[in-house]
Amino acid sequence: MEQPTVLFCHAGRTGGDTLNRVLKVAYHPYASQHYDTANAAWPFLRSAPPEALERIKCFYGHGVYFGFHSFLHSPTTYITLVRNPVKRIVSQYYCYLHDPNRGMHQYITENNISLEQYQNEARNEQAHYILGFPHYRLTRPSIQDLPSLFENIQNHFSFVGVTERYNESIYMLHKKLGWKQWRFWKKTLANPLRPELEELPSSLLEEIAENNELDMALHKYASDRLEKELSSLSQVESDELLEYIEAQECYTTLLSHCPKEVRPSFCGLLLQKRHLKISCLCFLPEAAAALGHFSHMVNTFPGREIIWENILYKSPYDLVTVFNHPIARDQFEHSDFIVMINHPGQEYLALEHLHTLGIPQDRIFFPLKA
Question: Which of 50, 61, 280, 369 lies in disulfide reach of 35, CB 3.0 to 4.6 Å?
Answer without folding.
Answer: 61
